[in-house]
Amino acid sequence: MAAPGSPGLLQAPSFAAAKCRPVVTTSRGAPRAVFAVRASAASAATKDAVLRPFRENRALKIISGLQNFDRSNVASVVTAADKGGATHVDIACDQDLVKLALELTNLPICVSSVDPSAFQSAVEAGAQMIEIGNYDSFYEAGIEFSPEQILNLTRETRKILPDITLSVTVPHTLSLPDQMRLAEKLEEEGADIIQTEGGKCSSPTKPGVLGLIEKATPTLAAAYSISRAVSVPVMCASGLSAVTAPMAVTAGAAGVGVGSAINKLNDVVAMIAEVRSIAEALGTTASRSLSEDLRTIHN
Q1: Distance (Å, whole) CA 213 – CA 164
Q2: Domain boundaries along the sequence of the chain
Q3: Is 81 helix (H, G, I), strand (E, B) or coil?
Q4: Residue-wise DSSP of 191-244
Q5: Could you tell me if 156 and 12 are in contact, meaning their C-beta atoms sit under 8 angstroms apart?
Q6: Which end of the chain is less congested by CB atoms within 10 angstroms, N or C?
Q7: Bridge-partner residues for 169, per DSSP?
């Protein structure tokens, strides 16, 4: 594995302390104050809406991939999340992709990155949630993240965006006790959601349902342990399916995140069907039928 922090991409950028700007006073100071209060209230309302499915233990986030900038695939994933009954969609941190997603869904849009400076433009484009995580593509390149790196990324992100809903993934490469300790520190640093992972490190030995359960075991174990160490919601992600998603909630997760089981499919109809099966397993599916959604797409 590459030494932590060796690639430039993975080092948290160094940000100079923001300089305090002088307060501009005018004869219309009161309206400005009212505007600030309204903006703050709107931000709080947005955050409440984003977090509500987690508080109700029914969050289902569909993940297109941190390094997936294929507009066609991202559009299909977003459409599948929207039509399949998901509560959130997670895409790469790119303002153009955010604008694309906004044209396709009213679901809260989360953007994923390991570069805190990249979040601002995506949030300005309309993203309502940010995620430090979805590290699978880095593991494939032999890159791992240390607890210190994750904490530094979280601190830098909170300096830039103190109010946005922030989810942070705890690396599965750490032992379970270390994952729990990191989760506790992330909560102290202002993380609103802790996300688990583990599917990439699991090699099922059995076919069928037994294999699906084997694959989900690491992330289920992390969700069980971390949910008992922190008070913020835990999202169980990586290696989950319609079989194991309900197990995640039983283990203590407030929701689940699903990526490759959806984004690796090459047909939007198949994607919608898979999202729908997971949503039904979680009991989050809206009353609209799959056939109605498919007619909407083909018309």
Answers
A1: 34
A2: 56-298
A3: helix
A4: -SEEEE--GGG----S-HHHHHHHHHHHHHHHHHHHHTT-SS-EEEESS--TTT
A5: yes
A6: C
A7: 195
**Interval 43-76: pLDDT, tens:** 888 899 999 999 999 999 999 999 999 999 999 9
Rounded CA separation 241/76 (Å): 19
pLDDT, position 38: 47
Average pLDDT over residues 111-118: 97
95 falls in which pLDDT band (50, 70, 90)?
Answer: very high
Q: Which amino acid is at 295?
A: R
Determine the distance from the C-alpha atom of residue 155 to the mean position of all C-alpha atoms in its chain, rounded to a whole number: 18
Structure tokens at 248: 């995640």
Report the pLDDT averaged over residues 140-150: 93
Residues 181-238 have pLDDT tens digits of 999 999 999 999 999 998 566 676 788 899 999 999 999 999 999 999 999 999 999 8
What is the helix (H) or strand (E) element at residue 132, kind and residue range? strand 129-132
Q: What is the CATH number of domain 56-298?
A: 3.20.20.70
CB 153 within 8 A of CB 132: yes
Distance CA 162, CA 174 (A): 27
Torsion sign, CA atoms 280, 100, 35, 130: positive
Q: Are 155 and 147 in contact (CB under 8 A)?
A: no
* Total-model pTM: 0.81
Give the pair of three-digit tokens for residue 246.
């309900």
